[in-house]
Amino acid sequence: MTDITIRNAEGTWTVRAGGAVLGESRNALELTEGDYPSVIYFPRDDIAMAFLDRTDHSTHCPKKGDATYFSIVTKSTTHENAAWSYETPIEGMERIAGHLAFYATDFVTVERI
């Protein structure tokens, strides 16, 4: 079984898409799961939710629970299912409730500033 570690992400983190800053946070969480790259989870209060539209897509992780997905809508395009959230994560993963993570791509940047 893969261990999952959740800790406070050091410093200030930002997420950008389509030239717009979607969020900046000093309260982000860093989730590490086995050999996978770490994922930064942003508190919803630090994200401009006006850029995000919830989709019907969902997935299930036996270690974290059911994830809901959001598309990022910019002036020029929509990035389908580019962010996800565990609204009611399973026991032991409660810290990521109320947080959003983003797929880093050529169009979406997640970085420490």
UniProtKB/TrEMBL annotation:
The leader peptide range reads none
One family name in Pfam for this protein: NTP_transf_9
Task: Specify the DUF427 domain's residue ranges.
Answer: 14-104
Q: Which InterPro entries match?
A: DUF427, DUF427_sf
Coiled-coil boundaries: none
Q: Which Gene3D superfamilies match?
A: Domain of unknown function (DUF427)
The membrane-spanning stretches of this chain are none
Q: Which domain of life is it from?
A: Bacteria
Q: Which PANTHER family match?
A: BLR5716 PROTEIN (PTHR34310:SF9), DUF427 DOMAIN PROTEIN (AFU_ORTHOLOGUE AFUA_3G02220) (PTHR34310)
Question: What name does the UniProt record give this protein?
Answer: DUF427 domain-containing protein
Source organism per entry reads Pseudooceanicola batsensis (strain ATCC BAA-863 / DSM 15984 / KCTC 12145 / HTCC2597)
Record lineage = Bacteria, Pseudomonadati, Pseudomonadota, Alphaproteobacteria, Rhodobacterales
